[in-house]
Design a protein that fits this description.
Number of strands of chain A: 6
Radius of gyration of chain A: 23 Å
Oligomer: homodimer
CATH architecture of the largest domain in chain A: 3-Layer(aba) Sandwich
Strand order of the largest sheet of chain A: 4-3-5-6
Shape of chain A: globular
Helix content of chain A: 40-55%
Number of helices of chain A: 8
């Protein structure tokens, strides 16, 4: 692309360096900011710099937070005995959006993957084990992707906890709510038959 | 979406306010910036603020520029007698990318559109006419979209120039180079037959 201005070129490149944004989209965003008041661009830049400078992982659960201990860990109304183990902070947001979980979280930062060179020591597993023991957690919910790497990670953590009295569960896997059976993939459908649940009859 | 941090929420909203970027994409971009060094986010923000503060329309052609007169208008090797009229600066970039034009540009800032309430007075037409007269331009090339609004704009400008000795041309319209006839739309194909060009025979 042929830019008549170095400043526009720099700004376009800054956007285009972000994942999933190409040069054409970047240019569209830059031209949009040029059309707005100068304030808008400044507020935009300010929000990003402030966020980047002040966001740190929560010391307890590794969720991203602007305070040393995150909002969720700090909330006295949440059940500190139940810990939901997730891969990343996006999973926390997704679970929080459901409003179905009132315990605390623990972010692993990924899953064990020999192919990608990720071992247990690269993840926040040691302090998960410590936390479970120190805080006398009664249940650990593994909300980990149903993949081979995810299953390996769950297996590894459960092995580390085998001498410790804590209930370990995984989130239910099966066909989507509202989904049509014919569109579910074979593996999911197969597993959902193997892991069928007794039906609660009325009046029982 | 449920953000555990106000700062992340602000940054996500800043991105999500840009056109074509939704909340999920915005979050992905923010998490990407968190993974990078603090420097990267600062350079990103800096490029945007600097660009927004210093970019102004070129006083001559209304191209965006970091100097009062843009690189193209300032270039003594370009032909100042030929002015290519375009709707917006993206069109300049597209034409510059072809390396087929060595004259100067004039950005209208849009086209005449009664439906959208855009009249000739909202566009940079008055100073185009003045420029053509003052600079004794010999040719004005209308590189305007082939739409009703575009045609109206070309008609309006040509009327304003009817007593002035300048050649007015429009860019050629027809089937795309390398395009297959069966996929060209009817209007384009129809026009390209009406506006057929004499074939240059070899040896003539």
């Amino acid at each position: 692309m042929n830019f008549s201005s170095k400043l526009i070129e720099d700004a376009v490149n800054a956007f285009a360096n972000l994942p999933g944004i190409g040069k054409k989209t970047a240019l569209r965003l830059v031209l949009h900011l040029i059309k707005q008041e100068t304030d808008i661009a400044e507020q935009f830049a300010d929000a990003i710099v402030k966020m980047r400078k002040n966001i740190k992982p929560c010391k307890k659960c590794h969720n991203l937070s602007d305070t040393p201990i995150c909002n969720i860990c700090n909330n006295p109304r949440r059940d500190a005995k139940t810990i939901c183990v997730v891969e990343n902070i996006r999973d926390i947001m997704a679970i929080e959006d459901t409003s179905q979980f009132k315990g605390l979280y623990h972010v692993l930062g990924g899953v064990i993957s020999p192919i990608e060179g990720v071992g247990p020591q690269d993840l926040n597993i040691d302090d998960l084990i410590e936390r479970i023991k120190n805080e006398k957690a009664t249940e650990v919910i593994m909300a980990i992707s149903p993949t081979i790497e995810g299953d390996t990670t769950i297996f590894y953590i459960s092995k580390r906890l085998k001498d410790h009295d804590v209930k370990i569960s995984t989130i239910a896997r099966g066909v989507s709510f509202g989904g049509e059976l014919e569109y579910a993939d074979e593996l999911t459908l197969g597993r959902s038959i193997v892991a069928r649940i007794p039906y609660q009859k009325h009046g029982k």
